[in-house]
């Protein structure tokens, strides 16, 4: 029986060979996955680790990426989400129930705090804030269910007392979830750190940052080593319809090959900038976990035995510089672009009002406006030049403003 042209357009006779060797694995795009027969349909188990039954559950392309992320970070089971924040939300919505208490560090990724505050007001979940460098500020009650950790913390980059925080959480049978975006699985192993081989229960990673590396793709991952936890997350992932595009997964997978090299380069450039920034008079504080004067430095040294750190440095400007001055400074930068995120090829700058962002007293932080530099792949000398130039312009602007001519 010969089909009509319209049908032949759809059912093409040619089939790709089952296996040909290419450097990158083949890309699968799927909503529908075709079952060979009814037997295959009725024998599917959507809770199986690699279940090919529908696009939202995954394809060889997404499973390949998930396996690789798991391998890099030292986890076992990986779920992918369309953004880092969506991965965070998956953890929150999976484990927090009415009446539970959740602990978050004061320097946690801001939108995570916002999501938790939203759950608090709507679902009766109690949000408690602790200081990541003071384990005594973490005082869980009987109702405590989950603690969020972040190493190093967002914007102010304090490295937490991870060992004692995790130990205390384990003692109280509280789930530990780490936002592992900064370390990217390269600076330290979240599933095996410290002399006592401690492990967090869950590691969340904004793959948007270093794994993507392009500043162009949004994605997140949730990793566990425990099968029971994974099944809970897996079920929530499935019923919430969290899915990613095969094309995006293939792009991130392709970038992974260079991730370590990029991370190390950006780490080194950030350290070069750190030294230079410290020699400048315009800042009262330069924040970077590898710097001895930064809060949590000893914890960084203890945990990040690789000696690595992400390419982020924050500075606090002298208090005499007001918001108008700092805006002027940021606008003078040419290589550093004004924008959120990090881990891409282009260096970025962002300004922050710490007063509006923190809930606890942070005595280790000096007064002044904060600017965060995210180091890209440019040559560090050019980046220094860019900042030097912007600082010169700033000083001119602030101290040498021409006296208004009156006629
Ligand atoms: C960027 C980021 C996220 C969120 O990732 P998105 O993909 O932008 O949603 C979460 N945590 C940290 C620490 C981040 O830097």
TrEMBL record:
The organism of origin for this protein: Acinetobacter shaoyimingii
Class in the EC hierarchy, top level: lyase
Gene Ontology biological process: L-cysteine catabolic process to pyruvate; transsulfuration
SUPFAM superfamilies, sorted: PLP-dependent transferases
Tagged with keyword Nucleotide-binding: no
Annotated protein name in UniProt: Cystathionine beta-lyase
InterPro entries membership: Cys/Met-Metab_PyrdxlP-dep_enz (IPR000277), Cys_b_lyase_bac (IPR006233), PyrdxlP-dep_Trfase (IPR015424), PyrdxlP-dep_Trfase_major (IPR015421), PyrdxlP-dep_Trfase_small (IPR015422)
Gene3D superfamilies on file: Aspartate Aminotransferase, domain 1, Type I PLP-dependent aspartate aminotransferase-like (Major domain)
Cofactor: pyridoxal 5'-phosphate
Molecular function per GO: cysteine-S-conjugate beta-lyase activity; pyridoxal phosphate binding
Protein keywords: Lyase, Pyridoxal phosphate
Catalysed reaction equations from the record: L,L-cystathionine + H2O = L-homocysteine + pyruvate + NH4(+)
E.C. number: 4.4.1.8
């Amino acid at each position: 029986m010969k089909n009509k042209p319209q049908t032949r357009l759809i059912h093409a006779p040619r089939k790709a060979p089952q296996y040909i060797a290419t450097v990158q694995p083949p890309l699968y795009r799927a909503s529908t996955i075709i079952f060979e027969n009814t037997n295959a349909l009725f024998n599917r188990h959507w809770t199986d680790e690699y279940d090919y039954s529908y696009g939202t559950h995954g394809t060889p392309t997404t499973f390949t990426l998930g396996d690789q992320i798991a391998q890099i970070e030292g986890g076992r089971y990986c779920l992918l989400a369309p953004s880092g924040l969506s991965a965070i939300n998956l953890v929150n919505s999976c484990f927090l129930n009415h009446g539970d208490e959740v602990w978050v560090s004061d320097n946690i990724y801001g939108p995570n705090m916002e999501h938790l505050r939203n759950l608090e007001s709507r679902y009766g979940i109690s949000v408690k804030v602790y200081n990541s460098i003071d384990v005594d500020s973490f005082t869980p009650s009987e109702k405590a269910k989950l603690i969020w950790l972040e190493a190093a913390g967002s914007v102010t980059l304090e490295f937490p007392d991870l060992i004692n925080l995790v130990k205390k959480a384990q003692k109280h049978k509280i789930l530990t979830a780490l936002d592992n975006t900064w370390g990217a699985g390269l600076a330290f192993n979240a599933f095996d750190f410290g002399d006592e081989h401690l492990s967090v229960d869950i590691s969340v990673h904004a793959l948007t940052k270093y794994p993507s590396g392009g500043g162009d793709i949004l994605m997140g991952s949730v990793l566990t080593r425990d099968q029971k936890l994974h099944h809970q997350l897996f079920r929530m992932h499935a019923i919430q319809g969290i899915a990613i595009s095969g094309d995006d997964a293939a792009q991130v997978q392709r970038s992974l090959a260079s991730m370590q090299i990029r991370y190390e380069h950006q780490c080194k450039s950030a350290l070069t900038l750190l030294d230079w920034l410290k020699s400048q008079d315009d800042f009262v504080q330069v924040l970077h976990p590898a710097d001895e004067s930064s809060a949590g430095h000893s914890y960084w040294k203890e945990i990040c035995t690789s000696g690595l750190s992400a390419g982020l440095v924050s500075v606090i400007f002298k208090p005499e510089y007001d918001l108008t001055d700092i805006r002027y400074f940021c606008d003078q930068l040419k290589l550093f672009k004004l924008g959120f995120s990090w881990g891409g090829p282009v260096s970025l700058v962002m300004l922050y009002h710490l007063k509006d962002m923190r809930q606890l007293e942070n005595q280790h932080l000096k007064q002044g406006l904060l600017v965060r530099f995210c180091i890209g792949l440019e040559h560090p000398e050019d980046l220094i030049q860019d900042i030097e130039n912007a600082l010169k312009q700033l000083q001119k602007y602030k101290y040498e403003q021409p006296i208004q001519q009156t006629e």
